[in-house]
Structures are given as C-alpha cells and as structure tokens.
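Progress against Task 2.4 (sequence-to-structure conversion) is shown through the following example record, which the project officer requested during the mid-term review.
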Amino acid sequence: MEKFNKFEYMEEYGYEQLCLFHDKSTGLKALTCVHNSVLGPGLGGTRVWNYATEDEAMLDVLRLARGMTYKNSIAGLPLGGGKSVVIGDARELAKDSVRFESFWRAFGRFVEGLGGRYITAADVGTNETVMTHIKKETDNVVGLPGGCGSPSPYTARGVFNSLKACCKHVYGSDNVEGKTIAVQGVGAVGYFLCEHLHKAGAKLIVTDVYQPNVDKAVADFGAKAVAPEDIYGVECDIYSPNALGATINDETIPQLKCKIVCGGANNQLKDPRFTAKSFKKKASFTRQTMLPTAAA
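Structure tokens generated for the chain above:
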C-alpha cells in the first residue's frame, strides 16, 4: 500500500484524534482513533490483526472510526465514532495467559488515559474475556459478561433481517429458503448468520482464513467450503461479506455472480466513490442491492 498523508486524510474526512500506543513490557502496539465526538464519546470496538504495515493499520482504524460515527448517529445514540486496532496475532497472544492479561490491562490504561473520549468494545480478535481485563483499568469499556456481552449474535440477527429485506426488494419475497448464500468469514457474526440462514432453509457456501471456523460451519450447517480467494466467483444468489472490509472492489466485482450483497463487515466498499461505477458496468447486476448493516 502506498504511503498516505495522514493529516490531509484526517482533514478531508473530519477526524479529531489519532493516537499511537506502545507498551514495551508486553509488546503492545495499538492505534485508537476518535473520528467525531459531537454527539458524545467515540464508541467502537478493538480489532486485532496482523497488518502488513503500520500505514495499513492506520488507514483501517481511520476508516473504521468514521464508520462508527455514522452507525451510532443513525441508531440515534448519544455517541460519536471511535475505533482501535492492535497489531498482532490474537491466537498467539492468547497462548500465554499471563502476558495476555498484562497486554490487555496495558491497553486498558491507555484507553483510560484518553479521559473518556473513547469507549471500547469487542471486534475481530477480541472477546468478552479481553473486555474483562480492560475493565480492570478503565470503565470506558462495554461488551462485558453479565452486561450486553458479545455483539456478534445481535449483529448477525440484524444482517439476517437486512438480507431478508433485500430479498423482498429483489425477488418479491423475504423467504430465503432454497437461496444460495456465499458467506465470507464464519468466525463470529458470520457463524451466527449461518445459523439463522440454515434454520430458514438456505444453502450455504462458506470460507474463512481460519480453517477450524470453516470446518465448524460445514459440520453444523452442511455448508460447502471453498478457498478464501474463490468465494467471489461462486454461483449464488447473495454474497455476504462478514470478515474484514474492502472486499467489494474493482478486482472482485467482476467475479461476483449474485444479485445481492449484504453482510456485517465494516467498510465493505474499498472505495465508495468509484466502486458504484463498477456495479453499473457489470451487466449481470440487473438489480443490485447493497444493504450493509451495523457492527460494533
């Protein structure tokens, strides 16, 4: 990815704050962004991912925080948009329980240092256990056991209802029975979405970068598995992106063989300013519906 001018980007899209955190003792490298706090503190989850470069991590946290501003506002919440990303491997980190707690408590102290401008929650690579450790250092955290817990089941239900609404618009009925749905990412939201779709009689094609997630979806729902790079070109009625963002782009759109794109991933369009043109150019998309849903 080419380097980008951070301040120009922040000025163009109205960002307020971008922070970099480092804790030498635990190896924590994290970024937190508050996009807009007009309605209240920035709320958004913390994502752990092995980013190829620091610029890639920075661009991701910027895009994610801006999306949370829109989602919290649309939901009528007294909250702004914020997000955090941690550079690393969540599964490797979880192997050492002592370091695991210290790592996330260090992150909690950094969140506390923002003085209430940012509230964190779970996202890709984090869960209720992580939030419990963060809670030991700050009250600016949600998604705890005994509270609202993991947002994934609720997000999945929202995606399922959105998907049914898309079917009503495109096919004249919200019944998904017999529809073939290609689900990208079945670790959290995608798994719970598959559960809804399976119960409703849909046929599932799944993929994930983590093979055990795929195996579980195949075993539990009778899904057909394909390689991550093959999910875009499968014959299906609906493509549902539920992993990382930017999977809808000028390279993948020509491969799609569906009439609906509907999933829970953040920032599904790599570039909203130009990708819409690609949909218009694609002759097979006679009635293209895009209805992305909110995720924490």
